[in-house]
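Hi there, hope your week has been kind to you so far. It would help a lot if you went through both lines with me. No rush at all, and the record is pasted right below:

***
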Amino acid sequence: MILQPATGIFTFTWVLVALPLLGAFLILVFGKQLKKIAPYLAIALSSSSFVLGFIMFLQMRTRPAGERGFVSNVYQWISSGSLDVSFGLQLDQLSIAFVLLITFVGTMIHIYSLGYMEHDENRGRFFGYLNLFVAAMLLLVLADNYLLLYVGWEGVGLASYLLIGFWQNKHSAATAAKKAFVVNRVGDFGLSLAIMTMFLAFGSFSFSAVNAGMQNAQDWLALTIGLLLLLAAAGKSAQFPLQSWLLDAMEGPTPVSALIHAATMVTAGVYLIVRSASIFNASEAARNAVIIVGAISLIAGAIIGAAKEDIKKSLAGSTMSQIGFMILAAGLGPVGYVFAILHLITHGFFKAVMFLGAGSVMHATNDNVNMRRYGGLSKLMIFTFTTFMVGYLAIIGIPPFAGFYSKEYILEAAFSHSIWVGLIALFGAGLTAFYMTRMVIWTFLSPPRWEDGVHPHESPKSMTIPMIVLAIGAAVIGFALTYNHVFEEWLEPVTGFEKPNAPISVFALTILTLTVVAAGVIFAIYRYRTISPTTPQEVSFLTQAARKDLYGDVANETLLMRPGQKVTKGLVTFDEKAIDGTFLGVANMVWSASRLLRQTSTGYVRSYAAYIVGGTLLVMFLLLIARL
C-alpha cells in the first residue's frame, strides 16, 4: 500500500482525536460551570468525530485501493540525536474501520448513559471520562508509529481506571480499578520492551520503517518482538494469562462495560497484532503462540460465561471468549487477519447491545445482577427483550445476523490451518450457544423470580433508542460487509489476504457449525428448563472452578503475588539491616565520639589551660622518646 501525504479533508485527521479530547478537557476542568450541558457536549463532540470520520471514509472510497493511505505529520514531537519522532497520524483502510466503530458505538453508549446515569450527581464527570476514553482509543488506532500508539495505549488504560472505579465510594469498584490498572501494566511492559527492541533494530518507531526492516530481519528478532507484542495484546484484550481483570471490571457502571468490552479497550490487542502483520508474518512460532493464546482464551472465557450467575460477569466471560476468536484468527496470518477485524466489528455491535440490554434489565430490577432473580421480562420489557434477542442470535451465529458471517469465516480459516484448531473453534461456537441460551432463558423466558419490591418496567427512550440502533447494526452489518467480499477487498492492501482452503466445503462446514450451535441451544434448554431462585447446594468441580474464574486469581496470587511479597519483604529487611544498619552504625559511632569530645568543653579557663599544659607535656614526652 502506498502512503501519501495527507491532502484535502485528510489533513484534518487530527480533529478526529481533538474533538472528544476537547470535550474531556472542558468537562473535567470546568465541570461545575458546564454541569447541565456536559452530557450533551460530550455526545455532540463524539458524534462530530463520527460524522467527520464517515466523510473521510466516503472520500477514501473514491480512490484506487492501493492509494487510500494517508499520513499527516501534525508536528515534530521528539528530536534528540538519532531519535526523531513526529506526532504523525495514519489514516488507512484499517484505521478508518476502527474510527467508525469507536465513534459510532461510543456515541450510542454516550446517549444511553443519559438515561442510565440520570440520577448520578457526578454524571458530568462520567461523560468527561467517556470522551477521554474515546479520544485515547482514536489516538491509538490513528498513530503512525509505535511510540505514539503507546501514548494512546496508556491513555486507554488511564481512562479505564477512572471509569471502572467511577463509583469509588464502593470498595469493590476501587479495588477492581486498581486490579485492571496493575494487570495491564504487565502487558504494557511487554509493549515498551517491543518498542525499544524495534528502535535498536531499525532505528525508528514508525510502522513503515518497521515493516521495511522486517523483510530482512532474523527469525529470533521477529519472534522476540512478536511475543512481546502478544504479551501486550493479552493484557489489553484480557487474554490468557492476563485475563483476571476483566470480570472485576464489571464493578463500573454498565455503559462502561459496554464501552470497554465492545468497541474499544479489549479490541486494542487485536488491532495491535493485525497492525503488526509484517512482524508476525516473519515468525511462524510467534503466530503459533498467538493461536494458542486465542484458543485457550476462547474456551476458558466460554466456560466462565456458562457458570456465572451475574449477568454482567457472564457477558464479560463471553467477551473474553469472543476476543479469543479474534486473536486466534489473527494468529492464522494472512488467512485470518481480515476475518479477525470482521468479527471485531460485528462483535462491537452485538456485544454492545447485549451489555446495554443487561443494564436495562438492572435498571428495571433495582440494580440486581443475579439472573436467578430475573425471569418473565420478555413481556414487560419488549424493546429490551427484542434487541437483546438480536444480539443473542448474532453472537451464536444464526443467519442472517452479523455473527454468522464473521464466525463462519473464522471457522473456515481455522480448519484450513489445522483440523485441531478448527475443532477448538467449533467447540467454542457450541459453548457460546449454550451459555447465551442459558442467559436468555434465565433473564427473559423463565417464570418470574423477582425479589420483593421489584416492579420491572421498560427503560426510557434515551436507553432503548441506542439499543434499537445497535440491534439493527447487529442484524445487517455482517451481510453488508461480506456481500461480494467487499470487506476482504477493503482491508487486503493493509493486512494482506489469502483465501482459506478448508478440507471440507463451505456448505458442509456451515451445516456442521449450525448443527453444533443447535446442539448447544437444545442442551441449554434441557439443562435450565427449571430454575431455582437460590443456588443449588451441589455443583460440579468445573462449575465451582468457573465461578472462581478458573482459579486465575489464585494462580496469580500463588505464582506472583505471594513470591513478590516475600521478595519485597526480604529486600526491606536487607535494606533495614544491611544498608540502613551500616549507615546508622557509622552515624552512631560518630555521635558517640562527638558526645565524648563534647564533655571536654566545660567553659572553664582553668580546664583549657590544663589541657594545653597536658598536651604540651605529652608532645615533649613523645619527642624525647623518639630521640632515645
